[in-house]
């Protein structure tokens, strides 16, 4: 289930989403039920077979967002889980202060180290994702924390990684950072590669002023990384991805 995960966490609420187009044929949890990390909560049917839908976090089911045999598109909500308070607190306390060492590491990683690797060795970057996905990001961060003699404050489960062919020859990768709500830190990173034209671009959806999400792009200009602001991000995740694809195609 890890490689299929496109679930979203926001304000202590965990949205379990459809990994593909398909339908739910059975629920194993109801509203008000307590669920544990790794528990199967639904059985999902696609054209290629059946998929167990598991929860990555413990909590209480607060809503069932679809019906049995209802056709779902990719990223549609299936279940909504209110997280256990302790779990949410542990993550929400990460990098809450711009003066903290965690903040400095994460900001540098998102805005400098990762885009430098992406543009400097795109083949290695894509190979790392193809083999390990979220583990690739976690491994890179772990090395940085180890070099600083610090303990990394989150796990590989702190990331969602989606990879797909978005449009013709364009490879579309999105990295979600769960619970990371601090201003100027990135909620999602997008990397797009046109395998035909070899065009590549690194995008961020980050926390701006007044809790507004902003779309940005980081690109190399004259040997330096330059940052471009494309304004507020759409509120819907699919619209956000569509906006980034539009920028990539027309920039």
Essential attributes:
disordered N terminus; OB fold (Dihydrolipoamide Acetyltransferase, E2P); single chain; 5 helices; 27% helix; alpha+beta; 251 residues; 6-stranded antiparallel beta sheet; 15 strands; globular
Describe the structure.
Helix 3 (122-132) packs across helix 4. This protein is α+β, with helices and mostly antiparallel strands and 251 residues long. It folds into 2 domains: 2-91, Beta Barrel (OB fold (Dihydrolipoamide Acetyltransferase, E2P)); 97-250, no CATH class. The model is unreliable at 1-5 and 86-93 (pLDDT under 50). The strands form 3 sheets. Strands 10-11-12-13-14-15 form a 6-stranded antiparallel beta sheet, with helices on both faces. A 5-stranded antiparallel beta sheet has the order 1-2-9-7-4. Helix content is 27%, strand content 38%. Strand 1 and strand 2 (13-17) form a beta hairpin. It is globular.
């Amino acid at each position: 289930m890890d490689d299929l995960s496109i679930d979203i966490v926001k304000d202590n609420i965990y949205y379990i989403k459809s990994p593909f187009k398909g339908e739910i044929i059975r629920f194993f949890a109801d509203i008000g039920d307590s669920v544990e990390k790794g528990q199967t909560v639904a059985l999902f049917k696609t054209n290629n077979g059946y998929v167990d839908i598991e929860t990555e976090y413990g909590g209480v089911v607060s809503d069932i967002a679809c019906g049995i045999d209802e056709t779902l598109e990719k990223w549609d909500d299936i279940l909504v889980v209110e997280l256990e308070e302790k779990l949410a607190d542990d993550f929400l306390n990460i990098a809450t202060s711009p003066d903290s060492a965690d903040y400095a590491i994460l900001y540098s990683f998102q805005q400098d180290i990762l885009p430098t690797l992406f543009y400097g060795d795109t083949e290695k970057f894509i190979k790392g994702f193809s083999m390990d996905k979220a583990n690739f990001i976690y491994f890179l961060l772990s090395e940085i924390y180890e070099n600083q003699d610090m303990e990394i404050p989150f796990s590989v489960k702190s990331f969602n990684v989606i990879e797909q062919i978005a449009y013709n020859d364009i490879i579309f990768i999105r990295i979600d950072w769960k619970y990371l709500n601090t201003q100027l830190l990135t909620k999602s990173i997008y990397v797009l590669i046109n395998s035909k034209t070899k065009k590549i671009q690194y995008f961020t959806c980050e926390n701006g002023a007044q809790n507004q999400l902003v779309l940005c792009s980081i690109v190399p200009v004259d040997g330096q990384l330059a940052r471009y602001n494309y304004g507020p991000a759409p509120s819907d995740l699919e619209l956000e991805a569509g906006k980034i694809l539009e920028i990539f195609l027309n920039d």
